[in-house]
Amino acid sequence: MKLIFSIVHDDDSYTVIEELNNSGYYVTKLCSTGSFLRTGNTTLLIGINDEELEPVLEIIKANSKRRTQYVQTTTHGALPGIFATVGTEVSVGGSTIFVINVEKMEKF
Ligand code: 2BA
Q: Which of 1, 26, 90, 94 qualifies as a cystine partner to 102, CB 3.0-4.6 A?
C-alpha cells in the first residue's frame, strides 16, 4: 500500500479531487501554504494499493496545470531608508508529488 502526498494549485484542486473520486479513489484535502510564494495551495492525501499508483498519478497529471506566477519582493536599496521592489516570474506546478510506502492501514 502507498500514501501519495500531492501538492496542487488551489485552482486545480476541485477538478483533481472530482476526477479521483469519480474513479473510486478516496482523497483527504489539506489546506497548505507554499513557503516560497507564501500563498495557499492544496495538499491531497491519497491512500492506494500499489497497482493503483500509475493510474492515480495519470489523473493528477492530466488535471494539474503548470502556471507562471508573478512575485514581488522588496529589498533594501543602496542608501538607508531606500527600498527597491523587484518583480520576478516563477513557474508553479502542475503537482509536486511524494509517494510513501505504508506499513499498515486500518479503519475502525
Ligand atoms: P512554494 O514554496 O510557494 O513554491 C512555489 C514555486 O516557487 C515553486 O513551484 C518553484 O517554482 C519556486 N520555488 C520554490 N522554492 C524556491 C527556491 N528556494 N528558489 C527558487 N524558486 C523556488 P513548484 O516547485 O511547482 O512547487 C509548488 C509548491 O509545492 C511549493 O510552493 C511548495 O508548497 C510545494 N513543494 C515543492 N517542492 C517541495 C518540496 N521539495 N518539499 C515540500 N514541498 C514542496
A: 1
Cα–Cα distance between 102 and 53 in angstroms, integer? Answer: 13
Alpha carbon separation from 105 to 1, 3, 19, 49, 88 (Å, rounded): 8, 10, 23, 11, 44
Q: Is 31 in the pocket of ligand 1 (CB under 6 A)?
A: no
Assigned domain for 89 exists: no
Count of domains for the chain: 1
Closest protein CA for atom 44 of ligand 1: 96
**Tens digit of each residue's pLDDT (9 = 90 or more) over 3-34:** 999 999 999 999 999 999 999 999 999 999 99
Report the distance separating Cα 3 and Cα 83, nearest Å. Answer: 45
